Amino acid sequence: MIRAVMVMNTQGKPRLAKFYDSVPVDKQQELIRSVFGVLCSRAENVSNFVEADSIFGPDSRLVYKHYATLYFLAMLDLIQVLVETLDKCFKNVCELDLVFNYSKIHTILDEIFFGGQVLETSSTEVMKAVEEISKLESASNSITLSQVCFWLAGSIACVFR
């Protein structure tokens, strides 16, 4: 089971952290600091797998990939799926996309993982689901031009009565 998915920059600032165990916020922050401490001390030419018994408990491993200024932590193949999906969604994803699109990032993550279990491994399928969710959200939040004009006309009529 996946215990957490994290994305942090090279200064240790978390850009995405989703824990699949019930972990208090202060413990989450401590875990993020510990993970960053391990990652920042590793050379570029070493394995992407780190034993993490001291951080997450027995039989735990950190699996990470370093892209530009970000560390992605999850299962290695799923890191690729996440990054491909983010690239499709944001057209060459960068750190600021993660900062300013928090809700959309979590929607993508929820399409890949649920409760620490893998749901989808195809970035194409994830994008289809995310696009469908976006359409539904925009449809439920939109007001048509005729509704606005009717509302404005009614408001004006009420003001003058």
Automatic annotation (TrEMBL):
It is found in: Endomembrane system. GO terms for cellular component: endomembrane system; membrane coat. Residues 1-136 form the AP complex mu/sigma subunit domain. The keyword Transferase does not apply. Keywords: Membrane, Protein transport, Transport. It comes from the Eukaryota. Pfam families: Clat_adaptor_s. The keyword Protein transport applies. GO terms for biological process: intracellular protein transport; vesicle-mediated transport. Belongs to the adaptor complexes small subunit family. This is AP complex subunit sigma. It comes from Carya illinoinensis.
